[in-house]
Amino acid sequence: MLSERKYSLFIKVGEKEHMHSLFTKGEIYFNTIEYYRKAESNNLLSDPHEGISQLMQGNAKFNYEDIRFSSESVQIAITDNTLKGNIFCFLGLESRTIMPSKKFISLNTDLTSINWGDTVVVIYNTIEFIKRVERELNKQDYKYQISPVLYYDFKKYSGKLDIFKKRNEYEKQNEIRIFIENETCKPIKLSVGSIEDIALILDRSDFNKLKYDYK
Question: Does residue 174 lie within any of the structural domains?
Answer without folding.
Answer: yes
